[in-house]
Design brief:
The structure is a single chain. This protein is of the alpha/beta class and 292 residues long. The chain is built from twelve helices and eight strands. A five-stranded mixed β-sheet has the order 2-5-6-7-8, with helices on both faces. The chain has a three-stranded mixed β-sheet with strand order 1-4-3. β6, α8 and β7 form a beta-alpha-beta unit. It is globular, with a radius of gyration of 21 Å. About 2% of the residues have low confidence. It binds iron/sulfur cluster.
Length: 292
């Protein structure tokens, strides 16, 4: 497995459970950095959400350095991020559609800065806080864990680990695990406490037209359960990566054809077949050579 280094992130886990073949082609057979950066199959809506988040992170970093942005600077930065994301994705988005996406993002951005946590940060309620880089991993139990919070602040007794959820979907098992994984990540992080009881969790998520902040304490037991679940995921991924080195025919395909619609490996994987036809071909080839 020359290209595979065990690692875990929520995105990776979600893909692995949706389609092991897509996971192998993204994380176990290719350069991981380029896979992370690929925007080609991201929808316009998600490009808008990514641009919004990038702008919020830039604004928080400026605030951390003592610089408060005006609304016009924030809106200019948002526009630039959206332009860049569209360009990197190789999309042709008409000006009317682009302006509509910007309006959605501007509305959410305005409301974001009115959430209690952001008002308190801007007001200087928490002298100790930092913006963290979501692409930085920590090494845990032999794998790289990508589960950084977006920000962490000290409220006088505990460190609050905050995740921004731009998607607005109902909380899934993967999201609950990701939230607890922030504690596993933080326990390893230099400069943060290595005791579960010193943490508190917050998610600021877009839900039905408003930003909702969910807060909850953390127990040592649930962090241990999360750590065990992540280790199981990593073990299953490692077995799958190892199997793929012998033959891709032994790696499972997606269960749901809907997963194939936006898959960046669709041409290579299905090669003009339907998912059902591909599955039959795989079964026929199981005892023969790799079909890639
Ligand atoms: S096309 Fe479908 S089966 Fe093939 S890798 Fe993508 S999601 Fe998986």
């Amino acid at each position: 497995m020359p290209h595979y280094c065990p690692s875990w992130s929520r995105t990776q886990r979600d893909l692995f459970f949706k389609c092991p073949t897509s996971w192998v082609l993204t994380y176990a057979k290719h350069d991981r950095q380029s896979s992370f950066k690929s925007l080609h199959t991201v929808s316009e809506w998600n490009l808008m959400l990514r641009s919004l988040k990038a702008t919020i992170v830039d604004q928080l970093e400026a605030l951390r350095s003592g610089i408060e942005w005006s609304e016009s600077v924030a809106q200019f930065t948002l526009r630039q991020h959206l332009k860049n994301h569209i360009r990197l994705a190789g999309r042709m988005v008409g000006s009317v559609r682009a302006e509509a996406l910007l309006l959605f993002a501007q509305h959410r951005m305005r409301l974001f800065w009115r959430t209690d946590v952001m008002v308190e940060l801007v007001g200087g309620t928490y002298p100790q806080w930092s913006v963290l880089d979501r692409t930085e991993s920590e090494h845990v139990d032999g794998y790289d864990l990508y589960a950084s919070p977006d920000i962490a602040y000290f409220n006088g007794s505990k460190w609050c680990l905050v995740r921004f959820d731009m998607q607005g979907a109902d909380e899934s098992e993967g999201e609950r695990l990701e939230t607890l994984a922030m504690v596993v990540w933080s326990l390893q992080r230099q400069g943060l406490p290595n005791l579960e009881s010193k943490y508190h969790l917050q998610t600021i998520g877009w839900r039905k037209g408003a930003w909702i902040t969910l807060s909850r304490p953390v127990t040592e037991q649930e962090v241990q359960v999360a750590r065990d679940l992540i280790a199981k995921d990593v073990a299953a991924m490692s077995v799958c990566a190892e199997a793929s080195t012998r033959s891709m025919a032994g790696v499972a395909l997606a269960n749901d054809p809907a997963e194939c619609l936006d898959c960046k490996h669709k041409v290579r994987c299905l090669n003009g077949n339907t998912l059902e036809q591909k599955k039959r071909l795989r079964v026929a080839k199981l005892c023969s050579e790799d079909d890639y």
